[in-house]
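quick one, two chains, predict together pls
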Amino acid sequence: MSVKHPMLLAIVMLLLVSTGGWPLAHGQEAQLANATKMANSPQWQKTLNEAKGETVYFYAWGGSKPVNDYLRWAAREVASRYKVRLRHVKVADISEAVSRLKAESGNKSAIDLLWINGENFSFLKQQELLLGNLWTGIPNAALLATQALSLENDFGVPIDGFEVPWGVGQFNIIATNGLLATNSLETQNRKITPESILQAAKQLPGRLSYPRPPEFHGTTFLKQLLVALSDSDARLFAYASPEAQATLLPLLWDYLDQLHPLIWQQGRAFPSSNTEQLALLQQKTLDLTVSFNPNQLIKEQKEQRLPLSAQRLYFSQGAITNSHNLAIPKGAQSPAAAKVVINFLLSEQAQQQKLQGSWGDPTVITPLLDPASTLPSQQELHSSWQQVIEDQWQQKYGA
Amino acid sequence: MATKIRRLILTAGWFIVTLVAGLPLFGIIVGLWPSVTISWDDVSHFFAYNGLASSILSTLFLSLFAPLLALYIGFMVYSQYRFNPRWQALEKRLAPLLSLPHLAVALGLVYLFSSGGLLWSSLWGIFGATAPEWLGLPHKSIATMLLAISIKEVPFFLLIFSALGRQLPIKNWLLQGRALGYSEMASWWLLVFPVLLKQSRLALLAAMAYSLSVLDISLLVGPNIPELYAVVLYNWQTGFTVEEQNVAFIGNLVLIALLSMLIAGIYLHEWWSVTTLRRHAVKRTSLKIVPISRLFTHWLGFFSLLTLAILVTFLVWSLGWNNQEIVQSSSAINWSFSLWQDEWFFIQAPLINSLYIALCSAIIGVLTTLLALELQRQNKHYLPDYIWLMAILLPQLSMVYGWQISHTAIHGGYHSGWVIMSHLPFTFAYSYLVLRGPFQSLDRRYELVAASFGYNYWQQFWKIRFMLLRPALLSALAIAFSVSVAQYIPTLMIGAGRVTTITTEAVAIATGNEQSITAIYMLVQAVLPFVAFLLASVVSQRLRGSFDVSH
């Protein structure tokens, strides 16, 4: 089969989507049919053959035991199903991999597959260091829940087939029982506001904190605050013009000026990451942590790493939601095997295991979508705000 | 013909040692080669980075005072132990104590003494309370770094002092001091300290250069408002925009400038301490530091206990101690080996890599050292130490950056061969540091006697010099081995993460702050050098008796 065929399929799919109003079950069947059709295509069979016996070096953050355990499970599965060796290269920060790709400048790469999103993706895409056409080249990409979730953009940058969504992050806060005054009696989905955080900080000085920006959990915490403080100002979702910065950002800095003297170490040190903050919560040094995984609280409680009384909360405007994705460098030495791995990671079984296992990362494919388990979502800010917030934070509080 | 071959061998030998000893300088030059055009904007961007000044100041403070503190403590310990029956115990235990990796010491201190750490929370746990925050060692602060580095470097300075002390008539000096009416401790400070201080300049610089550019412990226990300079620089080096790379270039220059400031600091401190001591000697006022020295009479016991406590802490964490903190309902700790069972299978590959890389780079490093020493002996002229020790005197971050640029430029693959090569300058430098003394002080008469028996050059070298040096060679091997095991930056940057060792895994996992699983990797990382030293000491015990004529 030529390349044209999957393109045609994509067009058909687009038409189906645009007609709208189809019952979900129908759409799901169509998606499944598409995936099966692509999986049986000679082109995919060729990819499977090429992949056999290859090794995929998967560069992904190595700091999370649940993620590491999940990838170990996946490695066993792809080895027995497709005779592909999946090696998880644990990095302390994925930007290490991005700068390596930059240094290799498209030549033979050490990296076959990488786990990225946001500015890292935007840079690699702009530098043309990524392999394209992944959505059309990988059968299970047809299952992606593009209707229900916003999966076609990554921090405002169109994905255009240069990466494939793998999971979804929703920003939430995990806190000890009764820490934050809430406006709802419901136990699971409690909403918070900047005011309730400030109130809690006044009552319990030194017990709150957030990861030091530019760590992305920390930056997202600031974004959530900014959305709440500015009453979801529309300018946050457009390019950060100097005027918009001048009117909106002081809201955030005024708030932080009040908050910082009341938080952990009076804001003279911050946890370096959300995981460090989680450890501080577990050691009862802090009373709250932040997370991008809406199921993290339940998983931590299951592993007896957090008390059952701990609560998951989210900002009343909704949880900032974004996807985390998989990409293949242009210089990858086993691109076929990397595609096979992505295809497996998007399969129902792998997505199910990701959700149900110790990781608990939400699924991105239609057959497993469960709207009840997701938090109300808040649109991500325009990507230009990220740098602005981080730079000015560093300028104001970084020393 | 014979002279031709001999000359060829000599040239090849010099070539090899120059290659290994020159790699650090090569890396620095490549790293600083202006491959990018630096505009005035970049310079102003660099200096506009908020917190740069305080970051640099705190880094300078740390890298100046932590090694100096360690030097003073080391000297006080040395003076308390040297002419004492306890000296032998110290010498025997010094090397294994030296081998505990910096990272293990730093994290171990935090796991033990932070407010949520083992010590305070179990003490407070008895009464069902949480230890107050102010009591514990801060998780991230300059104080924690200072403590970790100064504690960790004390055995290093003891090793240096013990090597220097063998060549100095300290006992005579102390006698002369007594004849002049000074107490023994005062004589140590007035007579011995200035000489030892002068002779340990390079060791001091090595410790300072290490503190200046150490990354792993700065990331994990260093302060982050502001971040230490090594962390800021590493972020720029791994940054991918043109702007960041230009700033990284300037950052490298500044790192070298900081190093030269530290060198100035060493001389300044030397001048200050010698003039102060001289003033005291002339005025015969009592030295305030003398009573402090007595505090270190039991240093060996204290340090062994601390090492043990750190290892036990890791063990306890890895067996699930953490759970007790969270689940109040069960008062008993659920000890379990399940983490070990989970991880053991996955530890094997990095463990084997670590062993293989460390063994190869240690053996090659020690052999190169032997070659360098022998070539200099042939020349009857020893080059100054700093030429050979550049790997530990120059900032690692800048030199490895240069290696990585060249490694990518020649499209070198990502396998353990390159990683071994990147460890080689470090194993070489440390074994040179350890071996030079014994090599030079070996009694030449043994070889003269051998020559008179008709032994040729190779027989003399192999049967006499090599055999006599065997105990020293073994400890050099063990030290080189542990140096290689602890390497993080070269392994990561040259191995591209594809070559995983216990240390790279440990740092990646430690970024997740799951203390129980980090503890497993830390424990394995800390145990490796111990095993090496144990083996070295067992083997050298067996070698003694027949060959131990040098003592």
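Residues 326-331, 545-551 of chain B have pLDDT under 50 and may be disordered.
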